[in-house]
Amino acid sequence: MIKIAVTGAAGRMGGRIITAIKEAEGLELAGAAERPGHAMVGQDAGLVAGCGPLGVNISDDLEQVLSGADVLIDFTFPEVTLKNLEICARLGCKMVIGSTGFTPDQREGVARLARKIPVVLAPNMSVGVNACFKLLKEAVQILGDGFDVEIVELHHNKKKDAPSGTAVRMGEVVADALGRDYNECAVFHREGMTGERTHEEIGMQTVRGGDIVGEHTVYFIGMGERIEITHRAMSRDMFARGSVRAAHWLDGKTPGLYDMQDVLGLK
Ligand SMILES: NC(=O)C1=CN([C@@H]2O[C@H](COP(=O)(O)OP(=O)(O)OC[C@H]3O[C@@H](n4cnc5c(N)ncnc54)[C@H](OP(=O)(O)O)[C@@H]3O)[C@@H](O)[C@H]2O)C=CC1
Ligand SMILES: O=C(O)C1=N[C@H](C(=O)O)C[C@H](O)C1
Questions:
Q1: How far is the CA of 53 from the centre of ligand 2 (A)?
Q2: C-alpha 238 to ligand 1 mean position (Å)
Q3: d(Cα 155, Cα 257) in Å, to the nearest integer?
Q4: What DSSP string describes 145-207?
Q5: Residues contacting residue 142 through CB under 8 Å, at least 6 positions apart
Q6: Which contiguous run of DSSP H or E holds residue 230?
Q7: 99-132, pLDDT tens digit by residue?
Q8: How do strand 202-208 and strand 71-74 relate by DSSP bridges?
Q9: What are the pLDDT digits (tens) for 10-60?
């Protein structure tokens, strides 16, 4: 039995992950954590998640939560995730990270700490989005350099980072396949007399509203034709199942930084 702990246990993803652990074979919820002062601290994690009592109360003491865990699944915020990763690295607990919005420095911090423990870090844990990453690479290989690329993402009005981690990864995949540097060619804002669009740029557009779970479209726009590769998430459950699959996959792995392409065997 692989013992899993969950941080952000009362969050939108936390609840779905706890439910997915309950439904998975060979895994059990060993602990659940929230930030100190959170209204759900002390409550049964299963009741908070809506999947029935699990006999595991949400705690604000992560070290104590990790004492009985093999893997921590963390969908919180970059600053919180990095602090939690430091604790995991010290205690030798493996980690699955779903948080998005890392700065380049924070990403380096994750890579440095992943030299001590095995870590899966992925901006999107769904099979469909990870298939799209492969399709995008293939699209560029077929289409070559002749199409303008624009990426549009839509999410709910509670999302804190923009563009989404998934959109950024899509931009990186396309830029890489085109032999460009994403950090140099991404354009996030157009207003006023912008001048003509350069051929090299990749436009990154963000829409926020209501309860949209997550939608991503990459447009390849040519002369007289347009290709659109779209992924629409209908619920958060496949992100949660992906994180649980990653936790399972980490069993027996050596320290290092892995992603969902490793977990799904897509590399
Ligand atoms: N990789 C993937 O497949 C996916 C990634 N995500 C990403 O996951 C992250 C979380 O998303 P979502 O669940 O919607 O966000 P939520 O805000 O609903 O959940 C985050 C939770 O973390 C809690 N939290 C804050 N600080 C701590 C702490 N120190 N210890 C433990 N818990 C803490 C928050 O509490 P409080 O609200 O009180 O601050 C909240 O309950 C985002 O970065 C999002 O982009 C989302 C979906 C899929
Ligand atoms: O915050 C969300 O909700 C989501 N975040 C991830 C991202 O930033 O890419 C993945 C998913 O689209 C939902």
A1: 28
A2: 16
A3: 27
A4: T-SEEEEEEEE-TT--SSS-HHHHHHHHHHHHHTT--HHHHEE----SS--SPPSS-EEEEEE
A5: none
A6: strand 226-233
A7: 999 999 999 999 999 999 999 999 999 999 999 9
A8: unpaired
A9: 999 999 999 999 999 999 999 999 999 999 999 999 999 999 999 999 999
- Copy the structure tokens of residue 151: 């990426």
94 carries an active-site annotation: no
Listed by start position, the domains of the chain span 2-125+236-263, 127-233
- Which ranges of the chain does DSSP label H, i.e. alpha helix? 12-23, 45-49, 62-66, 78-91, 104-113, 127-143, 165-177, 182-185, 237-249, 260-263
pLDDT number for residue 181:
98
**Preceding peptide of 104 cis, ω within 30°:** no
| Closest-CA residue to 123 (of 173, 158, 84, 157) | 173
* Complex ipTM: 0.98
Ligand 1 binding pocket (C-beta < 6 A) is: 7-8, 10-14, 33-35, 38, 75-76, 80, 98-101, 122-125, 161, 165, 239
Q: Which fold has domain 2-125+236-263?
A: Rossmann fold (3.40.50)
Atom 12, ligand 2: residue with shortest CA distance: 214
Q: Which CATH number fits domain 127-233: 3.40.50.1970, 3.30.360.10, 3.30.2010.10, 1.10.10.10?
A: 3.30.360.10
